[in-house]
């Protein structure tokens, strides 16, 4: 090899630190900015919200930042809403394995959200409080939005070029037939309130307790078939960005999703949230706590293009969400981004933990050689852990000796949620 050739090759070498620095700068340049606004009118004082702009996937690493937003609509008191606001995020983050890169972290997030919701509910019920709360919980990491929800608060996406999409499912017994069937199959009774003379009035409720919802956190006096297992949806926005409107049912009982989005288009997030609340009050008056968070996910050039006019239902509506292909995920993502269509990465609403916590024998094993409960994260000896699939009639393709595993308390809670034992009965 000629001396000159060796020198040329040497000059081509770039220190690893410089390469990492370039990647971090490139990621920072491509990452959207996030701005939000909050507005509320209180009637009962049971609505609470969370807005954290400085969360970190990796402690001490500013380039691993993400944002978290949530609305907690309490009922029968505010203690469940307050407790959930203070603890849910930490429970979710603790359920994600350490040392994951960003893509693996995002893939682990839906499962961690399920574990975090169930752990929060389990801990709150152990306090003996009877209040409950709906939860709509949103995590934004770059262009990826992950939403987990129980109850009837709602999150909608007004995406640029992709139209309007609802990222949550309402768990109201009145409208949700599947949830009514699940509740009755698990031991609950569904019916309307009876007054003198046997006349039935009002919405469908679950008895005992009379709750109109099929999923919530808390509500220990209603029955554990009212589950805290969230519906989870994860999407990736195009590089045009978009707007999220997260609101309690005080908004959605008054105005439609389309009306909420239309009423605040063209306004910055802070004014937009106030406008949505104003529109709801104009339509229905202050009959319930009315809370709204508007979050704008803005392209790196800090300029938001004018919102397109509302579109009629068309073939494009069916293309708003596309399942990611394992064979050509990156190619599909580029195409979707180019035409401003939102890419669906994950969606699951099953109330069964065997469906939601996965089927990986290696998941939940710690470096100490012990196993970890998939819900409450306590260490277990191999002989102590009970597979989430053990005895499940809903997961016939799985093996009961495969993980993930649950501690005895979490297994008891799983059985109660599925109607396999009366609520509150402990197995010893």
UniProtKB/TrEMBL annotation:
The residues forming a coiled coil are none
Protein name, as recorded: protein-serine/threonine phosphatase
The enzyme class is hydrolase
Family affiliation:
Belongs to the PP2C family.
The species is Kingdonia uniflora
Keyword Manganese in the entry? The reply is yes
Write down the chemical reaction(s) this protein catalyses.
Answer: O-phospho-L-threonyl-[protein] + H2O = L-threonyl-[protein] + phosphate; O-phospho-L-seryl-[protein] + H2O = L-seryl-[protein] + phosphate
Provide the cofactor list for this protein. Answer: Mn(2+); Mg(2+)
